[in-house]
Design a protein that fits this description.
single chain; 272 residues; mainly alpha; 10 helices
Length: 272
Amino acid sequence: MERTIKIVVFGALLAGAGCFLGLVLRWVGEGYEVLIPPSWDALYLGIWLLGAVVAVAVTGGLVAVLLRPFWVAAIAFAVSALAMFLTWEISAVSGIAAAVYFLVGLLYLAGVRGEIGNRIRFSVWHIRGSQMPLLVGLVAIACASLYSGYAAEIEREGFSIPEDAIDWVVEIADEQLDSLVPEGTLSPEEKQEVLDQLRATLEGEVGSAIEPYESYIPIGLAAIVFMILTPVTFLISWIPLLILSPLIFILTRSGVVRKVTETVEVTRLSIE
């Protein structure tokens, strides 16, 4: 009974991380509003997303290392994927994303079990290689959420260049005119006329030129975000392991888990 309770607790932690991920994915689905143009809100959203990814990696690591047999850990990932699905939204996209999350989780479990089995002494740092597909898969799911939300918005309202983006471009043009055009060449009225013409062009001709390709804009934005976040994910991949290491130590010292030493047969080749 005590072992069952511990299994349920660790599974619940992973399910909670799945709920947190689903909540952040819901925010990411509306993230196009802060990405064009980039703003501090986009940075905060990215931090929340990376935090959710780390939470799944840490709790998933505990499940992969501690829960036996394999099918018990697989059920924990399935429940976490379901929690993500229900917290995010009930749709075809979130359903596919939940299935991908579950499959990536199974690959992660298999990788961790294989890595642990090939080592004489356990260390959480040995599972870093198995962790990377999980992290990249979660980032891909986030980008799918971004694509889905932006594509739905364009389908409802049609594409238009965001007003904040137009203001941003005009502001940059204003600064560039001051640095490129000799002082006194343009009167304040002429400069304002140039900026007004630029604004009208962005709102009219540029928007009309982009309109035939509006269906490709969400996937382009999602691809750009994926290319930005993937290297960042590689850089922070040590953080879940840095959290896992003291957690495992605390759980071991407190008696929640224990170290087990096993004797195994090793087959080698030698010259007779």
